[in-house]
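Before relying on records like the one below, remember that each one covers exactly one chain. Contacts with other chains, cofactors or solvent are not represented anywhere in the record.
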Amino acid sequence: MIQTETSIFGIDFDNTIVCYDEVIHRKAVEWGLIDVNFSKNKKLIRDAIRQLEDGEMTWQKLQAYIYGEGMGEARLIDEAATFIKSCLKSDIDVFIVSHKTEFANMIPNGINLREQALNWMAEKNFFKQEGLGLKENQVYFESTRAGKCQRIKDLNCTHFVDDLLETFEEPSFPKDVTKILYAPDLEKKESQAMTVFNQWKDINECYFS
């Protein structure tokens, strides 16, 4: 059990508390990029698309779709929601801190990705007391990874959960913050640098059992 008086949790957004596996699989099949029987796994789909001709460009277009027009089809990871509610019930401050630009580089005048994310959170009852109980001012979007790290520092986070190792490898990431890597496809392990969890259920049990 963690110390509620001093703990402040920061949590990443994309692919950490929201899952795009199903929507990205559907769209990739629709675009003829993968077979319908291909695994519904964002990372595997990404790696397969990048092997195609103009694969990196195609992947960026697909990513712009899921974060924009396709956002409504994304799925809230249930155990992540449980963790947030457990934190608030225990009087532990929680912030969502995401590296997310306003518009996709591929579609500079397209859908506002931050507004889409906030609308999705509202639809999933993030900001209702009977839902997750967060407030919109507990959500931060930053244009760069360095800006994200600075925000984590400014919020005095003691712990941060992210699905990207690159976040923790950023030189400006605060050194005194406990690093929690949410990595469903990575072998679970612990080190002095960070703890790797394959599922939110394990994170919940680690901090609230």
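The chain has two domains: 8-18+76-208, 21-72.
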